[in-house]
Amino acid sequence: MRDAGVTKPIDRTAKRPTVAAVVPAHNEAPRILAVLEPLAACDVVDEIIVVDDSSDDNTSLVAASIECVRVVSTPRNLGKGGALATGIVATKADIVCTIDADLLGLSATHIQDLVEPLWRDSEVAMTVGRFIGGRKRTDWAQSLVKSISGQRAMHRSFVESLPDFAGSRFGVETLITKHAEATGAKVVVVAMEGVTQVMKEEKLGVGEGMKERLKMYADIAEHRLPIPVRRSPRKKTKRHPS
Predict the structure, then answer these.
(1) What is the rounded distance in angstroms from the CA atom of residue 85 to the CA atom of residue 81?
(2) pLDDT digits 0-9 by tens, 66-110
(3) Quick check: helix, strand or coil at residue 143?
């Protein structure tokens, strides 16, 4: 088993919000254990849901080999946005933590650091993990395009305020970030020291990997446009005669 890391002590006597980790995965059998093992070792995570987005490999079987993991399979490939939406619907947790299935260097402490700001400050709607000190290419990508990180923790109230993102595919993180900006939601960026990601070119080869990367960039570009914001109706106040 990989070194999953050790979380900091937490107060079990204090009631805390429940936390679910949702991991969207498509053909990630060779890589997903490096993510699930730290999640399973993290004391603050109450539920782990892997959404197998119609994989052609043994992603579901590998994920199910971790006893505490629940696997949800999609009937067809929905893309990342659809897979995340499927996983979020499957949990009633107070905090939803989204984690990519192809990370390297992830530890239980990274997960706890991502969640804790939402416990400490009730005004924080979302945290966003940013790679630091992993690999130069992934560090650079996240510093250049700050909306693309798939490592997030979100309060249930913020999740329920989001517009429908089931069809957003790789644009899902950009859509979520734009919604936070448009609604003035408080967001905290959390450094994820030493964490990086397996590149598409490494998974699929240079040619196919580049094709998938261009598709991803197209999805991201599409959702960088302004989005409609759902606001609560303003209550009418009664005027008293002077």
Answers:
(1) 6
(2) 999 999 999 999 999 999 999 999 999 999 999 999 999 999 999
(3) helix
Which secondary-structure segment (H or E) carries 4? none
Q: How far apart are CA 142 and CA 103, in angstroms?
A: 14
Half-sphere exposure of 230 (CA within 13 A, CB side): 8
Cβ-Cβ contacts under 8 Å for 190 (sequence gap 6 or more): 113, 114, 117, 127, 128, 129, 130
Cα separations (Å) of 17 from 84, 85, 119, 150? Answer: 20, 21, 7, 21
| Contact between 149 and 173 (Cβ < 8 Å) | yes
Torsional class of 133: left (φ above 0), alpha (ψ -120 to 50), beta (otherwise): left
- pTM for the structure as a whole: 0.79
Residues in the chain: 242
Query: What residues have CB less than 8 Å from 183, skipping those under 6 apart?
Result: 161, 229
